[in-house]
Amino acid sequence: MARRLTEDRLVIASHNKGKIAEIAALFAPYRVATVAAAALGIPEPEETGASFEENAALKAHHAARHSGLPALADDSGLVVPALGGMPGIYSARWAGPERDFRAAMQKVHDALGDKDRAARFVAVLALAWPDGHCECFRGEVAGRLVWPPRGEHGFGYDPMFVPAGHRATFGELGAEGWKHRISHRARAFEKFAAECLANGDHG
Q1: Where are the domains of the chain?
Q2: What's the pLDDT score for residue 200?
Q3: Largest CB tally within 10 Å, which of 28, 84, 150, 181?
Q4: Does the predicted TM-score (pTM) go above 0.85?
Q5: Which residues fall within 8 angstroms of residue 118, CB to CB, at 6 or more apart?
Q6: What is the rounded distance in angstroms from the CA atom of residue 184 to the CA atom of residue 176?
Q7: Which class does domain 9-196 fall in?
């Protein structure tokens, strides 16, 4: 049984504005106030983990230690089997120091050539407390990559990813509506909410 979140405030351990907005929106039905790590002056730690789980936990522990509050971190990325699973945990790094995801999408497209364009998005949410306890929850959504990118919503690789069973990209679906229901982050959050928020104080 996962530890329940009894506090009414937590830190979103991210400096990515798009990711912060998505996670904050997912918390909307619950009586838990969220604050971004950047707003508290908490620097981003170096992501040295070898998996989504390790990096998410690393970021959550870092924010919890610095804030004295529970912290929720996300580590997510695009996994392309035809590229050996890349960019995977290096999805943000493929965008370079300027976080240019147009260039990152071009890099993925060029690397694929005529290879199979099946892909999946993976998200792991890690909830850490100042005492060092941590819970992790993984969500995935399968789909395929298209070119050229379509849509101006979302962030990262969203404009080139079409989730299975749909025709629109995540960039076209946007943060409202369908993306929040079917995304990898939404699926991870569903597991997190069921385990850590399933009580009368937050439901």
Answers
A1: 9-196
A2: 38
A3: 150
A4: yes
A5: 80, 81, 82, 142, 143, 144
A6: 14
A7: alpha beta
